[in-house]
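Blinded run. Sample ID left blank on purpose so nobody reads anything into the name before looking at the predicted structure. Input follows.
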Amino acid sequence: MSSALLIERQDAVETWTLNDPASRNALNDAMVSALLGACARAAQDPTLRTVVLTGAGGAFCAGGSLGGFASLIGQPLQTGQTDPLLAMNRSFGDLLHALSALPQLLVCRVDGAAMGGGFGLVCCADHVLATARSVLGTPEVTLGLPPAQIAPFVWQRLGESAARQCLLQGLSYTAAQALQVGLVHEVIEEDSDAAWQQTLSRLMRAAPGAVASTKQLLHQLRGPVPDLRYEAAQAFAQGLRSAEAVQGLAAFARRQPAPWTLSGKDSA
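Blinded prediction complete.
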């Protein structure tokens, strides 16, 4: 088991903890690979009833980690070169599809930030419990990047109108606002084992076979999540190599507005 992902089993419940507090549990290659492995194993485990996805150190997930490909930001792809960004981003798309297809109840226990890719993880869950201090958002377009792999999952979770608002404006939601739009199902004041056990006891009333069968029916009813993994990987790779990404990420690091941001005076 990778140290990037901690897995703890208690009876029929597994807790998968994203474990990189220094980065607020940003999704790096090791974490995505470990999660994919956990999904493959869980899908074949009839004794497992509930998977709880959470984050260590007071954050859920800050999104995708840019550290592994920082040198590629803003750099054009050489003629004939296979873009390494494609495989990296496609793996995250594979993870979102694998999480959505789990036969078990998938519960996200959110405390703190759930941004970008973390927002996408939340959209895969059957039940989301969040603390009042949690913030959930999709800031990608404000950084010069498309929220590519998460877009179909946000669209399916929130509906087209709310997804357009969220993804095209780079919105953030408080826990209370996320509850209103259906992204979060339950809000508690602070993360505590007592509150969590109360939620878990309620969820465990559902029979595992019935849950798996019902999830299959719901997937058929709404149709599968549109499979845009290849197209999304292309869009993200192109976005990361663009001048907008260079400018947007630099502005974010300096805590300044991106150059395309219009002031109220300019936009009047």
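Unblinding after everyone has recorded impressions. The longest helix spans residues 84-100.
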